[in-house]
Write a structure and sequence with these properties.
The chain has a two-stranded antiparallel sheet. The protein has one domain. The chain is elongated. A hairpin with a 3-residue loop joins strand 1 and strand 2. The chain is an alpha+beta fold. 1% of the residues are buried. It is built from three helices and two strands.
Amino acid sequence: MCVNISIFVYTKIYKTMHRRTNIELDVDLVNKAMEITHLNTIKDVVHYSLREVIRLNKRKDILKFKGKINWEGDLNELRSI
C-alpha cells in the first residue's frame, strides 16, 4: 500500500531552497522507519533517510584510501587517553 504525500526537498547550493514535490511512499516502509528511528513525522523520516544516504556514500568514499596510507601508532595507547 502506498500513500501520496507532499514533502519539501531542501537543496543547499548557495542558499537553502525549498521545493515541493509529490511522491508515493510505501506505508509499511514509512511506519517501520518511524518505529526504528522514533521520529514522529513522515517529513522527518524522509529528511533523516536522505541524510543517511549522503553519510553512507561519504563513508564509501573513504574506502578508496584503503592500502594507500601508511599509519604508524599504538591503538592501545590511543584508546587509554
